[in-house]
Amino acid sequence: MEVSGDKETKPPKRSRAHQRQRTQKTFKDRLYSFFLSFALFNPFLRLARKFAPNRKSKETIQLLSFARKIFNFIEGFYNKRHCKDWNHFIQKESNHDDFLVGGTLYIPREKDILTQWGIVDKDNENQSISQNRALENGEIEVEFLGPFSATKWTSFQKNKGDVKKYGFHKISNLNLEDLDPSVPILLWFHGGGMLAGCPKDRFISSFAQLLVKRENKSRKSKEKVGGNYVPPFIVLSVDYRLAPEHPFPSAIVDCLSVTSYILKSFPTISINIGGISAGGNLAAAVSLQSYKCFPGRLNSTMIMQPMLDPLCNSMSFTLNSPYSGIIAGESLRWVWRAYLELSIDHSDNQFDKDMKKCLENCPWKEKEDMWRLCCPQFGISKVPSSSSSSPIFIVSTATADPLEDDGINLIKVLKQSGFNVTHNRCIGNHYISLETDAKGRKNMIESWHDSIWGQNVVPMEL
To answer: What 8-state DSSP symbol labels residue 12?
Structure first.
């Protein structure tokens, strides 16, 4: 469903042939969906069916903590494997003179970030925001990944056990000032429904190595020379706060704070932003706000299978959620209620399914600029756009994803506002299609690579 001002429009009806196309999956996708729905997402479904999303509920937090441990273990396992592949590639191309390094940066949370960016008035800030602890003091952890040559360091003592343990050589005392400002930077927001996930997720390490390999191939082909080449590339993955302990706008405050700090620390560079699922929501919101406050400083934005519509009643949601295995209808509604801190009677199943009634009590809907941070597709037409300074948006969707219409509606609104948008569509389920659909993944990497390293991207028609 698209939301425009106070009017709500129902999604258009689609033919049976189109509906069958939307729910198609490969055999590998079905196999992955079955395994992950049982091993990984079953605890989240239990949460949705048994407990209210209340941060003060001991039972809710205990089960959620258990689900997060499983989620992070699986993500960390694949992240380490992809980092090892990236490290092997760097060493091979550099004749073992270069290697993959990683570490944790600590960036201060800016208490007045919402007023700095003109999102809320200073007079109303304390009345509406501080009571939910979104602007409390603290530091935000940001995980760094990149080749050693992307830092200003001239020497480094390797620990032989680091690659086996982490997939890279760990730097313990890394500062933002140690990074080479001439190297392309990708700011990444992980997925997990705003209530799970970690910055060391499988996708960013996997896609980062695919991007640098593509740039390596492109550079050698363009210059028509052989030899070795390690593309300089820095990934900064944000460990934002999670709901229900930290409801909206805590996550977006963290992401805006990190983005602001990086843009101010490197005033001469343009950055790239990306995110998947819930992180796609944050990437879209941060990019549109950055475009308003720092025009020309944002190079590209990758939005993968974003979670954008709290109403949970789109055509793709209706068709795909019963068969997804990854995103059950109850789970997605529970996620939105936890993120927006919607308190309802959990025993009333009918009320639980009607998100429109839940959102009637949401105080953020009355504040247009704040609501845009939660649902970035809302009010985009009010953002002045010009081709000279606007970033390239690449939106990836999947045919059997309950969230596909979220991404498609975002594409339509961005195009109507004059932004440069490329649409990539994978065959399969949420998350899984990015691993099982090799052709769709290759097309996405091609577009993403070209937007980062300055090639021309030809927008695709819907």
So the answer is: P
Question: Beta-strand (E) ranges in 47-138?
Answer: 100-108
The full DSSP string for 211-252 is HHHHHHHHHHHHHT--S------EEEEE----TTTS-TTHHH
Q: Choose among 306, 319, 310: nearest CA to 355.
A: 310
CATH numbers and ranges of domains, the chain: 30-452 (3.40.50.1820)
Query: If DSSP codes are grouped into helix, strand and coil, which group holds residue 139?
Result: strand
Contact call for residues 360 and 265 (beta carbons, < 8 A): no
Q: Which phi-psi region, left, alpha or beta, contains residue 224 (left: φ > 0; alpha: ψ -120 to 50)?
A: left
Backbone angles phi, psi at 106, to 5 degrees: -120, 115
The Cα 331–Cα 446 span in angstroms is 33
Reading the chain (462 residues) residue by residue, the pLDDT tens digits are: 444 444 444 444 544 444 444 456 666 666 666 666 655 566 666 666 666 677 777 888 888 898 899 889 989 999 999 999 999 999 999 888 899 999 999 999 998 899 999 888 776 555 555 445 677 889 999 999 999 999 988 888 888 889 999 999 999 888 888 898 889 999 999 999 999 999 999 999 999 999 999 998 888 777 655 667 888 899 999 999 999 999 999 999 999 999 999 999 988 888 999 999 999 999 999 999 999 899 889 999 999 999 999 999 899 988 887 776 677 777 888 899 999 988 655 444 444 457 888 888 888 888 888 999 999 998 786 556 555 678 899 999 999 899 999 999 999 999 988 899 999 999 988 888 888 889 999 999 999 999 998 754 333 333
CA end-to-end span of the chain:
17
